[in-house]
Amino acid sequence: MSDSPADPMIGRLIDGRYQVRSRIARGGMATVYLATDLRLERRVALKVMHGHLADDNAFKARFVQEARSAARLAHPNVVNVYDQGQDADMAYLVMEYLPGITLRDLLKDYGRLTSEQTIDILEAVLSGLAAAHKAGIVHRDLKPENVLLADDGRIKIGDFGLARAANNNTATGQALLGTIAYLSPELVTRGIADARSDIYALGIMTYEMLTGEQPYVGEAPMQIAYQHANDTVPMPSLRVTTVPHELDELVSWATARDPEQRPRDAKVMLDQLLDVEKQMRPFDGETGVQQTLLMPSGAAAAQADADTMIFGAAAQAPGATTVLPAPVVKPPKDAELLSTKTRRRKVRGYWLFALVLLLAGLGTGTGWYFGSGPGSQVEVPSLVSVAPDAAAAQLAELGLQSALAQQYSGTIAAGLVASTDPGEGGHVKKGNAVTLYVSQGPQPITLPPLAGLTTDAASSAVTGLNAAIGTVDQVFSGEVAAGIVMSATRESDGTEVSQGGPYFEGMKVNLVASLGSVPNVSGKSVNTATSLLKDKGLLATTGDSVYSDTIDEGDVVSAAPQKDGPVRAGDTYVLTTSKGPAPIPIPDVVGKNWTDAKKILEAAGLTLDYNLFADTPGAGSFFIVTKTDPAAGTLVPPKSKVKISFSA
C-alpha cells in the first residue's frame, strides 16, 4: 500500500523512541507502519491499534495478548515482538520487520506451488507452530496472509493477536470471527479451538498451495462454514494430478472432520512431513524403495475458544541442515490393551441402565423426532426466479439449511434460482439442506461454420447444440449451388453468425440458402422463356422491345427481376424482346465519284444496284453521283439496296 500524505502517523515519534517512516498495511484492528527504533538504530514494524477501538477493553486485551503470546516464543520461524506500550490513547506493538511478501502474494503471482515448494514452506510453518503448541499457545488464525516470506529466504509466522492458551477452552460468541475459509469443523459447530484446529487450517493451506484454490467456495460465509462442518476435504490430486500420493494423505489427515483423527499438534505433523520428504526426496545411498506412510490418529488435546484468527509465516534459513524425520509414534500395545479392557468394563456396567433409559424415552422421543424434531418433514416451497439470499431466508424460516450450486438456464435470468433439489413440493427433514441451483444464463455453445453446408447439415449442426433454426430464406444465386447455405444470422439481432462464438443454447439462427441460378432465356422465344422460368417457380411478363443485330425479331433479348434485391420463388422477371436489327441512315454520297460512293455505302452495310459500265476498272472515277434512292438520311434496314444516279 502506498504512503498516504494525509496519514498523520507518518513522521510521528512514538513514545519518544519509534520514528514512523511509512505505512506497510492496514487491517480491521490495526495499521502496520515501518518505523526506526532510534535507541537501537534498527528498522521495526510498528503495529498501531485503530483509534476507534481505543475504548474497547476487549480489543486492548487482545492487543496485549498478542505481545505476551509472541514474547513466550523464541523461534526462528516466528515473528519476534520486541516491545508493547501506549502513547497517549494509542496502543502499539513493536515487531521484527521482515521486508518481503506474504504467502498470499506468492499464490497470487504463481497460482499454485510445486510439491517441493509446498513442503519447504510447510516445514518452516510447522516448525514455528510446533514451538507455539509446545508453549501452550494456539494461533487460531493460520492463513496465507499471516505467513511472511522474507527477501533473505526466511519464513515466519506472525500475527498472534488471537492466540490463546491451549488449555483455555471456551465457546464464546466470537468463535467464528476468524477467516472462514480456514475454520475447523469444531469451530463452526461448537466454537471450540485447540492445537488440532491450527492443524486443520494448515491442511487447508496445504491444499491451497498444491492446487492454487481453496477446497470450499461459496457466495456467503454460511455456505463455506456449512461445507467445513459437513463435507470432507477432497484430495489435492483430484484437481492437480501431479500431486504425490503422500501429500494427498497428509492433507486428508490434517483436515479430518473429527479432531481425534488429526495430528494432536504441529510437532506430530512435522515429524510426519519430514518422513514424507525423506521418501519423496531420498538421500544418496538409499535404495529408493518407498516405504508405506502411516498416518497416526491425533490424540485428544486441550481446546481453546476462538476469535478472529490472523496468520504469519514460518521461515527456514537457506542452507539449513536437513533433520532426519522421527519415526511415526504409535501407542504402546500395553496401553492399547488396558484402554480396551477399561472400556469393556464400563460398557458392561452401564448397558442395563442405558437400556432402561432407552425404553423409557423411546415413545416420547419418537413422537418428538417425527413431530417437531429433526425427523419432521418440511415441504419445499417454490423458489424458482427468486434471488438466492431471499430463497435462503425462506428456507431458514422453515428450519431448513441451504446450499448453493450453479446451472445454466435458457429461461431463468442469470443470478436467480433456476431450480432446487429437492424440487418444489418435495419433502426434506427439518435441519437438512436444500440445494439452490443459481442460473448462469443460457449454456454457451460453439457453432461450426454454416456457410457451405447443405440446409439439412446446417440445421442438424444447430439443433445438435440445443439451438434452433429460425427461418430458412431461399434465394436464387448464380454462384452457389442449389440447397447450399449462403449465410447465417442470429434471429435476435440479425448479426452474422461466424464460426465459434460463444453463442448460447436456445438461440435461433436464420439461414439463407441457394435455389441455384436463374435460367438464361436470351435468344428464346417468349413462350419458351416463360416456360423455363415457370419451372423454377418464377413468373414472366413482356416488357420493352429493343433493336438487336443478333436476336431475331420477337425473341427474348434479356430477362431481369421486376424488383431490386434477392430473387425468391414467386418473383416476376421482365422479358425484353427484339425488334430486329436497328435501321441504317443512307449516307450522303452526292457529288462523289462512283468508286468512292460505292465504298461508303457498302461500309454502312448497304448494297448498290449493279452497274456494269461504272464497275469497269478505272471507269468509276469518271462518273459523279447526282442522286440516291432512297435519299440521303433515310433510315432503311441493313443490307437494303440503294439506287444511284450519276453523270459522266
Automatic annotation (TrEMBL):
Write out the entry's keywords from A to Z: ATP-binding, Kinase, Membrane, Nucleotide-binding, Serine/threonine-protein kinase, Transferase, Transmembrane, Transmembrane helix
NCBIfam families noted in UniProt: PknB_PASTA_kin
Instruction: Give any Pfam family that matches.
Output: Pkinase
A GO molecular function annotation here is:
kinase activity
Q: Which residues form the Protein kinase domain?
A: 18-274
SUPFAM superfamilies membership: Protein kinase-like (PK-like) (SSF56112)
Q: List the transmembrane segments.
A: 350-371
Is the keyword Flavoprotein in the record? no
* Gene behind this protein: pknB
Q: Which domain of life is it from?
A: Bacteria
Query: Can you give the residue ranges of the PASTA domain?
Result: 375-440, 516-579, 580-648
Which reaction(s) are listed as its catalytic activity? L-seryl-[protein] + ATP = O-phospho-L-seryl-[protein] + ADP + H(+); L-threonyl-[protein] + ATP = O-phospho-L-threonyl-[protein] + ADP + H(+)
Please report the organism this UniProt entry assigns to the protein: Cryobacterium glucosi
Which InterPro entries does its entry note?
Kinase-like_dom_sf (IPR011009), PASTA_dom (IPR005543), Prot_kinase_dom (IPR000719), Ser/Thr_kinase_AS (IPR008271)
Record-listed E.C. numbers:
2.7.11.1
What is the protein named?
non-specific serine/threonine protein kinase
